[in-house]
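Researcher: Please predict.
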Amino acid sequence: MILSTTSNQSFVFDFTIDSEYKQVSLWIEKYEYGELVDEGRNITTEVMEQGSIIFTTSQLETMENQTVFTIGVNDNEGTASGRSSDLVSDKDSDDRFVVAGSISEEINITNEEIVLASIAYSWEEGVSSFSPDFYTNSEHRIKKLEEYEVAYLLVSKFSK
């Protein structure tokens, strides 16, 4: 309830990792028609065996199409968070379509990058949500991102 009243979109991911993993890095990638245009700043923090990752977006009332992204990581030892903002587009926000989603299946944590969530914008009708395959298959993901003018992906990487 708190997240839904303070943000436009919110995603919460609980994790349980082997004790050999010591850190998590999170960042937001921005794509325009499937091309990576910005990897954004990342947040890296120490993590223990269990915790949560929270990702939210909010719109600024003072600037049309300005989106604020907040990432937080919480475990038994504490919380780390970061915030950034981006101008989605110069186009009128009243005419846009938004598709948001997240990985829905339990995943095995590896040293690989994992796409956790997505938010995509289009000013054309006929947008569709992302399939579960979008989050696990990079070839499929890039092909799908080509359909959207702007897309943001929350990416994570756990390290030993």
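Model: The two ends are 34 Å apart (CA to CA).
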